[in-house]
Write a structure and sequence with these properties.
This protein is mostly helical. The protein has five helices and no strands. It has a domain of about 90 residues. The chain is about 80% helix and about 0% strand. α1 packs across α3. The chain starts with a helix and ends with a helix.
């Protein structure tokens, strides 16, 4: 492949990545907006139902009537919240599916682009190094090759120092004299 076709692939990859990013933000924004609408509508209904249950409880005339209206509201609230949870869960699963579709790796041949880009970077680096070394040579500056030769020379072996000999001394211990 030529450098031009590799550049075209990198450009296509960048365009695809940008388009995918825009579509992702749109999908997430749509999900959040729908969630806010659903949550607001449900809680508005719950507030109205709660106010109605308070009014009905106060007009019931007894504690038993008040608690009956309160229990009725609690059952309604439980059902509404379960419904909201189910709707939010379904909406989130739809968002996940949409994101999985957007980020399918078979749409983008990233390995091919990475392989070609690595080759281009390697060639560029080699060319840059040769220009740099020629510049150093032109100004009579060390290129680093003499330093490598100096570091590879073997140092003269040094004689190892002999370890001091241990001398054994017999000590007269009082316990050995008493044992005999």
């Amino acid at each position: 492949m030529t450098l031009q076709s590799t550049a075209r692939k990198v450009q296509d990859f960048s365009k695809t990545a940008t388009d995918t990013g825009v579509k992702t933000v749109q999908a997430q924004s749509r999900f959040m907006l729908e969630s806010l609408k659903r949550n607001n509508a449900t809680f508005a209904e719950l507030i109205d139902a709660r106010l109605d249950s308070f009014y009905d409880g106060m007009t019931a005339g007894s504690f038993k009537g008040f608690f009956a209206h309160d229990a009725e509201f609690r059952a309604t609230a439980k059902d509404k919240l379960k419904e909201l949870y189910g709707s939010n869960k379904d909406s989130f699963q739809n968002l996940q599916g949409e994101l999985k579709t957007l980020y399918r790796l078979d749409k983008i041949n990233a390995d091919d682009i990475q392989e070609k880009a690595t080759g281009v970077v390697k060639k560029f680096t080699e060319a840059g190094n040769s220009v740099f070394k020629s510049g150093l040579t032109a100004f009579n500056l060390p290129t680093g090759e003499t330093e490598q030769k100096a570091s590879t020379r073997k140092a003269a072996p040094q004689k190892a120092k002999a370890a001091p000999k241990k001398t054994e001394t017999k000590s007269a211990s009082p316990s050995s004299e008493t044992d005999s």
